[in-house]
Protein backbone atom coordinates (compact mmCIF):
# COMPACT_ATOMS: atom_id res chain seq x y z
CA UNK A 1 0.00 0.00 0.00
CA UNK A 2 1.56 3.31 -1.00
CA UNK A 3 1.21 6.26 1.37
CA UNK A 4 -0.33 9.39 -0.06
CA UNK A 5 2.18 12.26 0.07
CA UNK A 6 -0.57 14.73 -0.82
CA UNK A 7 -2.63 16.13 2.04
CA UNK A 8 -6.25 15.58 1.03
CA UNK A 9 -7.76 15.96 4.49
CA UNK A 10 -10.31 18.58 5.42
CA UNK A 11 -11.38 19.41 1.87
CA UNK A 12 -15.01 20.09 0.94
CA UNK A 13 -16.72 17.09 -0.64
CA UNK A 14 -16.61 17.20 -4.45
CA UNK A 15 -15.12 20.71 -4.39
CA UNK A 16 -13.91 20.28 -7.99
CA UNK A 17 -17.51 19.96 -9.18
CA UNK A 18 -18.63 23.15 -7.47
CA UNK A 19 -15.77 25.54 -8.17
CA UNK A 20 -14.01 26.80 -11.25
CA UNK A 21 -10.34 25.84 -11.50
CA UNK A 22 -9.40 29.47 -10.89
CA UNK A 23 -11.37 29.42 -7.62
CA UNK A 24 -9.53 26.48 -6.07
CA UNK A 25 -7.30 27.03 -3.07
CA UNK A 26 -3.70 25.92 -3.36
CA UNK A 27 -4.47 22.85 -1.24
CA UNK A 28 -7.46 21.95 -3.42
CA UNK A 29 -5.38 22.39 -6.57
CA UNK A 30 -2.62 20.13 -5.27
CA UNK A 31 -5.18 17.54 -4.12
CA UNK A 32 -6.47 17.18 -7.67
CA UNK A 33 -3.29 15.38 -8.72
CA UNK A 34 -4.01 11.64 -8.66
CA UNK A 35 -0.34 10.60 -8.58
CA UNK A 36 -0.46 8.60 -11.81
CA UNK A 37 3.03 9.81 -12.78
CA UNK A 38 2.19 9.99 -16.48
CA UNK A 39 3.10 13.67 -16.80
CA UNK A 40 6.66 12.73 -15.76
CA UNK A 41 7.16 10.59 -18.86
CA UNK A 42 8.91 12.05 -21.87
CA UNK A 43 6.71 12.65 -24.88
CA UNK A 44 7.43 12.91 -28.57
CA UNK A 45 5.56 15.62 -30.40
CA UNK A 46 5.21 15.77 -34.19
CA UNK A 47 6.11 19.36 -35.03
CA UNK A 48 3.84 19.42 -38.08
CA UNK A 49 0.72 17.73 -36.74
CA UNK A 50 1.11 18.42 -33.01
CA UNK A 51 0.41 14.74 -32.37
CA UNK A 52 1.91 13.63 -29.05
CA UNK A 53 3.19 10.13 -28.32
CA UNK A 54 3.93 8.94 -24.80
CA UNK A 55 7.12 7.04 -24.01
CA UNK A 56 8.00 4.98 -20.98
CA UNK A 57 11.22 6.96 -20.60
CA UNK A 58 10.80 8.85 -17.35
CA UNK A 59 12.25 12.13 -16.20
CA UNK A 60 15.54 11.75 -14.37
CA UNK A 61 13.91 12.69 -11.06
CA UNK A 62 11.05 10.22 -11.35
CA UNK A 63 11.10 7.43 -8.76
CA UNK A 64 9.56 4.43 -10.51
CA UNK A 65 8.99 2.50 -7.28
CA UNK A 66 6.95 5.23 -5.57
CA UNK A 67 5.59 6.82 -8.77
CA UNK A 68 6.62 10.23 -7.46
CA UNK A 69 9.10 12.97 -8.14
CA UNK A 70 12.07 12.24 -5.91
CA UNK A 71 12.80 15.94 -5.33
CA UNK A 72 9.49 17.66 -5.88
CA UNK A 73 10.12 20.75 -3.74
CA UNK A 74 13.51 21.52 -5.29
CA UNK A 75 13.00 19.87 -8.68
CA UNK A 76 13.67 23.01 -10.70
CA UNK A 77 17.27 23.01 -9.52
CA UNK A 78 17.70 19.78 -11.49
CA UNK A 79 14.94 19.97 -14.10
CA UNK A 80 14.32 23.64 -14.86
CA UNK A 81 11.98 22.74 -17.71
CA UNK A 82 9.53 20.93 -15.41
CA UNK A 83 6.24 22.69 -15.92
CA UNK A 84 4.35 24.21 -13.01
CA UNK A 85 0.77 23.61 -14.01
CA UNK A 86 -1.64 26.36 -12.93
CA UNK A 87 -5.23 27.34 -13.62
CA UNK A 88 -3.84 30.15 -15.74
CA UNK A 89 -1.68 28.00 -18.04
CA UNK A 90 -3.66 24.77 -18.34
CA UNK A 91 -5.23 25.97 -21.60
CA UNK A 92 -1.88 25.73 -23.34
CA UNK A 93 -0.85 22.40 -21.79
CA UNK A 94 -4.02 20.30 -21.77
CA UNK A 95 -3.38 18.92 -25.28
CA UNK A 96 -0.32 16.92 -24.17
CA UNK A 97 -1.53 15.93 -20.73
CA UNK A 98 -2.65 12.35 -20.10
CA UNK A 99 -6.27 11.60 -20.93
CA UNK A 100 -6.99 10.57 -17.35
CA UNK A 101 -5.15 13.46 -15.70
CA UNK A 102 -7.55 15.01 -13.20
CA UNK A 103 -6.56 18.53 -14.23
CA UNK A 104 -7.33 17.78 -17.84
CA UNK A 105 -10.61 16.03 -16.97
CA UNK A 106 -11.86 18.91 -14.83
CA UNK A 107 -10.68 21.44 -17.42
CA UNK A 108 -12.69 19.49 -20.04
CA UNK A 109 -15.75 19.46 -17.78
CA UNK A 110 -15.55 15.69 -17.27
CA UNK A 111 -15.98 13.77 -13.99
CA UNK A 112 -13.10 12.20 -12.11
CA UNK A 113 -12.81 8.43 -12.15
CA UNK A 114 -13.83 6.39 -9.12
CA UNK A 115 -10.19 5.40 -8.59
CA UNK A 116 -9.16 9.01 -7.96
CA UNK A 117 -7.88 9.31 -4.35
CA UNK A 118 -10.35 12.13 -3.67
CA UNK A 119 -13.15 9.65 -4.36
CA UNK A 120 -11.63 6.31 -3.31
CA UNK A 121 -10.00 7.72 -0.19
CA UNK A 122 -6.66 6.07 -0.91
CA UNK A 123 -3.73 6.76 -3.24
CA UNK A 124 -3.30 3.02 -3.82
CA UNK A 125 -6.47 2.85 -5.93
CA UNK A 126 -4.68 4.62 -8.80
CA UNK A 127 -2.13 1.82 -9.00
CA UNK A 128 -4.70 -0.94 -8.43
CA UNK A 129 -6.75 0.42 -11.34
CA UNK A 130 -3.71 0.05 -13.60
CA UNK A 131 -3.70 3.69 -14.69
CA UNK A 132 -0.42 4.73 -13.15
CA UNK A 133 3.11 4.14 -14.46
CA UNK A 134 4.44 2.73 -11.22
CA UNK A 135 7.05 0.03 -11.98
CA UNK A 136 6.63 0.55 -15.73
CA UNK A 137 9.23 3.14 -16.68
CA UNK A 138 12.87 3.31 -17.71
CA UNK A 139 15.04 6.23 -16.55
CA UNK A 140 16.05 8.76 -19.20
CA UNK A 141 19.73 8.42 -18.34
CA UNK A 142 19.54 4.84 -19.66
CA UNK A 143 18.02 5.68 -23.05
CA UNK A 144 19.52 8.09 -25.57
CA UNK A 145 16.99 10.65 -26.81
CA UNK A 146 17.41 9.37 -30.37
CA UNK A 147 16.04 6.01 -29.18
CA UNK A 148 12.99 7.28 -27.32
CA UNK A 149 10.76 6.32 -30.21
CA UNK A 150 11.61 2.68 -29.48
CA UNK A 151 9.87 3.13 -26.13
CA UNK A 152 6.56 4.62 -27.24
CA UNK A 153 3.64 3.23 -25.22
CA UNK A 154 -0.11 3.50 -25.11
CA UNK A 155 -1.31 5.52 -22.16
CA UNK A 156 -2.52 3.15 -19.43
CA UNK A 157 -6.17 4.11 -18.93
S1 LIG B 1 -0.79 13.37 -15.11
FE1 LIG B 1 -2.00 14.79 -13.92
S2 LIG B 1 -2.92 13.55 -12.30
FE2 LIG B 1 -1.23 12.35 -13.17
S3 LIG B 1 0.55 12.81 -11.86
FE3 LIG B 1 0.56 14.26 -13.57
S4 LIG B 1 -0.53 16.09 -12.84
FE4 LIG B 1 -1.01 14.39 -11.45
S1 LIG C 1 11.04 17.10 -12.18
FE1 LIG C 1 9.76 15.78 -10.93
S2 LIG C 1 7.64 16.52 -11.28
FE2 LIG C 1 8.94 17.35 -12.93
S3 LIG C 1 8.76 15.85 -14.62
FE3 LIG C 1 10.58 15.31 -13.40
S4 LIG C 1 9.84 13.77 -11.94
FE4 LIG C 1 8.04 14.82 -12.74
From TrEMBL:
It comes from the Bacteria. InterPro entries: Puta_zinc/iron-chelating_dom (IPR005358), UCP006173 (IPR008228). Pfam families: CxxCxxCC (PF03692). PANTHER family: UPF0260 PROTEIN YCGN. Belongs to the UPF0260 family. This is UPF0260 protein SAMN05443551_0429. It comes from Marivita hallyeonensis.
Amino acid sequence: MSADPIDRHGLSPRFWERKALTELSEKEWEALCDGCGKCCLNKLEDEETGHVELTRVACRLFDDSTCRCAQYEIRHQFVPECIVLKPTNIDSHAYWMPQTCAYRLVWEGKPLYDWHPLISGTAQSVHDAGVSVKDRTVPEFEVHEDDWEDHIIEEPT
